[in-house]
Amino acid sequence: MQNWGIISLVPAVTVIILALITRKTFEALVGGSFIGFVIISYKSSFSDFTNSLLLVMQDAAIGWVILVCGLFGSLIYLLAQSGGTNAFSGYLLKFVKTRKEALLATWLLGLCIFIDDYLNALTVGSSMKKVTDRFNVPREMLAYIVDSTAAPVCVLIPLSTWAIFISGLLESEGVVAQGEGLAGYLQAIPYITYGWVAAFLVPLVAINLIPPLGAMKKAEERAKKGILKPPDSDTISLEIPEYLSDKEPKLSYFVIPILVLICATVYFDIDALRGVITAIAFTVAYFAMSKVMSFAQAMDGVFKGFKTMLYALAIVTMSFVLKDVNDQMGLTPYVIESVSPWLNKEYLPVIAFVSLALITFATGSFWGVYAISLPVIIPLAQSMGVDIWLAIGSVISAGAFGSHACFYGDATILSASATECNNVAHVVTQLPYTLIAGGITCIIYLILGHTI
Asked: Where in this chain does the record put each Na+/H+ antiporter NhaC-like C-terminal domain (predicted)?
């Protein structure tokens, strides 16, 4: 495996430093990626950078991400335009009477929408703002809870896009027979420790058993003055329009389209793209027939909603460019080679989790890291006599950590967009909680590595 050694860390470290200094993610990604291409070949760095952009835009994976995220933005826009989002928030406010109840309601809603982390982040974030705003909850706290029930919950549910993808990898690696991927995935779920810890840390934060820490404490103090959003949040915010109809908005305008979305996604074998296209087609027809809005107004909302996602999509797209330069510099092989001398039966789970968690945090690549690392970790576990499902669980946990903690991870960007929260502020304020969850996960893997 060819790599640039420790120099391969430079692009990712540059991105993190620039993001912390400027509080701007897109610009930080451009800077870090370009520096990587300069290191590879300063003479052709600009053409290499532009070629990488073109290759990323031609990739089927980024095309899928752009369509899914953009169309989710369209659907959320339609729900807001119909008044359905307000009706849903108003309905919850009849039962939610305290701050703690508002935070717990957000957590419970996140647990229910487990099909896809994109769907989870955008739906829960956009629908719960009005509820948490009533109790002066800072947007950073809302974004933390939303993000904590995205990837960390999706990896625990066999009927999710994450589970379907990983199940395919298990079949391709021969861990299970063809067609038995999900059955195998079920055996790994008890060992996806980070998902369990991160998801169930949230209610402890909600009821203040774990108090606001670090930057979150400052956000709470600011929110007490009535300033709920951190600075520079407008750029990434998912625009929520005023509803068009003179009619009283109905709860069904929110609930029915979301149910159609979930059912269609499941029907199409957990394909979020087909699910959201079906849901939009249904919603446009449903609202037109219900005279909530005209067909022309609904279609206009589809395009406006897609447009509100452009900045978030630009960040996600640029994160793929960073992934490209990291791959060319061999970041993942370098980290794996660096930790391999320390691997043994007892420490394989925790070392796999820590090393791959750092890679996913630095690169913003989660499914890609799974595809690279599982073919390495699985035979290592088999040769060392490590429980195969424990080893696989540690790898899956690492991806969930990266998705949860990375500045420019897709679920992080969408959680920030849906909650109207600067994504750097979101990541910095939730970092103490992700580190707590990561630390507990390490301890559990140490114990399991010595006992199983």
From this structure: 186-449
